Every structure is written in structure tokens, then in C-alpha cells.
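Dear colleagues,

For the upcoming journal club I promised to circulate an example of a predicted protein-ligand complex. I picked one with glutamine because it came up in last month's discussion. The inputs are reproduced below in full, followed by the predicted structure.
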Amino acid sequence: GPLVGVLALQGDYGAHARMLTALGARVREVRVPADLDGLEGLVIPGGESTTMTLGVAREGLAEPLQAFAAAGAPLLGTCAGLIMLDRTHLGILDVTAERNAFGRQIRSFEEDLQLDGITGAGAPMRAVFIRAPWVAEHGPDVEVLAAVDGHIVAVRQGEVLAVSFHPEITGDDRLHAAFLARVRARRGA
Ligand code: GLN
């Protein structure tokens, strides 16, 4: 299977790694720049974006992550991972994320979502939002895949997919499968 990474500075990277492994990928935890060598894709998990940002700075990971994305490798960011990709953090996605946008911890909620190009004509995806961000602003190259009450919660820009929720904890692996399909497609290209 393809070799993909999961940024493992903080957050629930273990659940992503298990899901990707179950889908036939080989998974490497990424903590330092050298861990990116040879990877064919990368997941940035949910967690706490301030802590993750400090870890990225401490390990000198910002520039290597930006170069990895610029080389066209597929990326998947979820929740805090979406925040990490935005304009004010790594600047990989042309979006501005608003943190904790749905309110405080008590505003964590679940919602059934259709994701353009991912759930297709199939069943909607159960999306778990935990102190989730939304996309407050985005540039013209950003495709909106889903919204909740008019607030954007899933986007794609080129090879980068990002969602506000936690797809790794519901057992629905379609988002991870879509990410791996991009990885495999790029491999065959
Ligand atoms: N609220 C967190 C942050 O701002 C993100 C929450 C999550 O990843 N579940 O970083």
C-alpha cells in the first residue's frame, strides 16, 4: 500500500493511523522534518491547534510541510488540522478558519452530512464536531463540499481536503478512502 504520514505532535493521530492502516496504507507518524521523506500523503489530525503550532515551530516543520504540499502530495486536515492549514497558520489552504466557531465544549454536536464528491449518492456521513472551527472566508480556488447552517465545514483545494469534524471516530472511512484514492491516483500518474 501507499506510504502516508500522520502528523503526531499532538491530538488524536492514533485513530487516523488505525483507520488508514485498515484501508491498506502503510502509516508513519511524523514528528520531525525527516519523517516526511518518501511520504505520499499526510493527515493533520484534530487536537489543539495552539499546541500543534508550538510543536511545528519547535521542530522546524512549517517550511517542510509547506514544501511537501507545494510538491502536490495529497493532504487531509481535520478539525485542528483544518486550522493548521489555513492562511494564518501554515498557509497551505486559501481559507480563514474561525476557531471554536460553534461555541464552547457544550456546543459539540453530531450532524449527518453529504460531502460533494465523497458521499456521492450514498448515505450521508455522520460528522462529529468537537469545539470545531468553520471556514469563515475562502479564495476562488477553494471548493466547498459541505456546510452546516450555512457555515462551511468541508473544503477541497487541489490535493488538499479539510473538514471541521472528526471522521476518525465514527467508523465511517469514506473520507480517508477518498484521501487514499488521491494518493493512489497520483502514484499511478
Ligand atoms: N478547538 C480546537 C482548536 O482550536 C480544535 C478542536 C478539535 O480539533 N477537535 O485547536
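Two points we might discuss: The helical segments are 13-22, 49-59, 62-70, 80-85, 174-188. The pocket of glutamine is lined by residues 46-49, 79-80, 83, 99-100, 130-131 (CB under 6 Å).

See you all on Thursday,
B. R.
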